[in-house]
Amino acid sequence: MSHSSDMIEVVHFESMPGQGHFSIQRYFQIVRDFLPDDVRCHQHACRFPNSGLIGRLRNVFDAREHQAVVNHVTGDVHFLALGLPRDRTVLTIHDGEILHRLSGWRRQIIFWFWFKWPAQRATVVTTVSQASADDLKSLLGDAAPLKFRVIPVGIDPAFTPETARPFPRRPRILAFGGTPNKNIVRLASALQGVDCELTLIGKPRPEHDAAMQRHEISCTMEHGLSDEEMRRRYVDCDLLAFPSTNEGFGMPIVEAQAIGRPVLTSNRSPMRDVAGDAACLVDPDDVGAIRRGVQQLILDAEYRSDLINRGYVNVKRFSPGAIARQYADLYREIAASVRA
Fold first, then answer.
1. Cα–Cα dist 308/317, whole Å
2. Which residues are CB-neighbours of 11 under 8 A, at least 6 positions away?
3. pLDDT tens column, 258-316
4. Opening angle at CA 188, ends 267 and 232, nearest 5
5. Cα distances (Å, whole numbers) of residue 222 to 36, 195, 262
6. Of 23, 105, 128, 335, which has the fewest CB atoms closer than 10 Å, so is most exposed?
């Protein structure tokens, strides 16, 4: 790929469409949209299905044929780094949550082929929060000496402030399920007796349905929403309850703040770091603390208003332009070292 002395050529490697995490692909599309003019970046999706050894090897060799001055493996397909030059490759690992859920031979395969060996083959590993960086360093050991860089997630520019409206007598609470770390069973227990409507986003889990019935929560469960439908759920809610026990980042916190909705989240990293001073922070292991936090948000109008205003300030840290500039600085740094 040709380049002029003042132009940096970058390629973003991604999963085959429909095979990876759409949210990751959407995130890096936003990054590309906001990169400065001296960074020319395009995406290269895997051409072959990531199933079995042969398909993955074909994608590794294909990636070698499409490399640029800077190569960035953006997620899901970490193993592509195995075929790219170490001094010109950035690897983004969003979190190590899957390693905490797996055991036995499956964990070993994922550990070596998706985490340790790819991390060893990258000149820089980026991740979305300091909590994720610390966790990955612990998991990877000597594969990650001093090359981690924390670059947060940028917010989709479609998330903008909505017109303020009266807080209803029976508020609608937005929450996210799908995985155990979202802490929905404790949230349901905390909401018992609270006059509210709960909208739960994520693939249904039997324990969540059972908890809603046991605690008599009026709950609507949804999954597979489009981008616009998901944005509308924030607009339609009155507050976000996000008491996760752990996260790689916690994007719903920022999205709710950008729309102008008060947020309850956990008093541990990375959620409290992402929320800044603009959320009601609670102990996610304490049902009583979650309940008291929700009640304060419902009953205290001045508190809600203050958190909303602080939220508008906090989200500026995650503007797409600010995040794209951090990636651009990293690409310039790597390109300069390659050309030296």
1. 15
2. 1, 41, 42, 43, 44, 66, 67, 68, 70, 71, 72
3. 999 999 999 999 999 999 999 999 999 999 999 999 999 999 999 999 999 999 999 99
4. 80
5. 38, 21, 21
6. 105
Q: Is the pLDDT of residue 330 over 50?
A: yes
Q: CB under 8 Å to 71, separation ≥6 — which residues?
A: 10, 11, 13, 63, 84, 85, 88, 89, 90
- The residue written with tokens 């490399």 in the block is 67
Q: Where are the beta strands (DSSP E) in 7-69?
A: 8-14, 39-45
The residue with tokens 């909705």 is: 261
Q: pLDDT tens digits, residue range 205-254?
A: 999 999 999 999 999 999 989 889 999 999 999 999 999 999 989 999 99
Beta bridge partners of 150: 127
Question: What local confidence, expressed as pLDDT, does residue 18 receive?
Answer: 67
CA separation, residue 253 to residues 176, 182, 246, 275 (Å)? 11, 13, 13, 6
Q: Which two tokens stand for residue 269?
A: 């990293």
Q: Is the peptide bond between 17 and the residue preceding it cis, with omega within 30 degrees of 0?
A: no
188, 214 contact by CB (below 8 A): yes
- Alpha-carbon distance of 200 to 229, in angstroms, equals 13
Q: Is the pLDDT of residue 87 over 60?
A: yes
Specify the residue for token string 């001296």.
Answer: 38
Whole-model pTM? 0.86
Cα angle value 312/194/245 (rounded, 5°): 60
- Distance in angstroms (rounded) separating the CA atoms of residues 164 and 198: 20
Interval 175-201 mean pLDDT: 96
Helices in 111-183 by DSSP H: which ranges?
117-120, 130-140
User: Which residue is associated with the tokens 């990650």?
Assistant: 144
